[in-house]
Structure formats: C-alpha cells, structure tokens
Amino acid sequence: MVKVLYSQNGTTKTFRIESNKTILDLSKKENIAIEGSCGGSMACSTCHIIIHKDWVKKLPAPCIDEKEMLSLLPDYTENSRLGCQIVITNQLDGLQFSLPKET
Ligand code: FES
Fold first, then answer.
1. Which of 19, 55, 65, 81 is found 20 to 30 A from 89 (Cα to Cα)?
2. What pTM was computed for the model?
3. Spelled out in words, what is the top-level CATH class assigned to the domain 2-98?
4. Atom of ligand 1 nearest to the CA of 39
C-alpha cells in the first residue's frame, strides 16, 4: 500500500492505496470530490487535480493527450494533472495533491 496525501482547506488527510491504482480510483473509494465523468478515458478533464510542487517532477510527464486536455482548463496551473492518469507506484509514496480552487 502506498501513502497518498490529500490537502483541502488547510487540512491534510492521509490515505493508503494499492499500487497501480490511480488518483481517480482513490477519489471514488474515499469520496474525494473528483467527478471523473469519463471514467478515465481522458475525455472530460473533470478529474483535474493539483500536484504538490515537491512532487510534480517526480511524476512521469503527461502524454500529449493529457497536456491538450489540461491546456483547455480555465483554472490550469503548472502543477495541474488529470487524476485518472496518475498511477500510484511505490516510488510515489507520500505523493500530495489537492483540488483546484472552486471558481
Ligand atoms: S476521468 Fe475524464 S479525463 Fe480523467
């Protein structure tokens, strides 16, 4: 099991998830407010998450399709990723993320 930290409104919750699951899988299991309406097929970007700055470079770079989806988001940041594309591995133990601010 891999430790993943989710920060919201100044509080951080720690979850444990099996490796090879995605952040979207974690959100479904733990009721984190990520919609993920396309189920992870990179067709909706409703799984937009913000990766903590310390972890951005430790993740595999987004593929072209993910970059394109992210570039369409009005609240895109340098640390934006699609939660359905972040596959948890043992190397990501301690990964920290949050959700974009509500507009
Ligand atoms: S769930 Fe649709 S793009 Fe991630």
1. 65
2. 0.94
3. alpha beta
4. 1
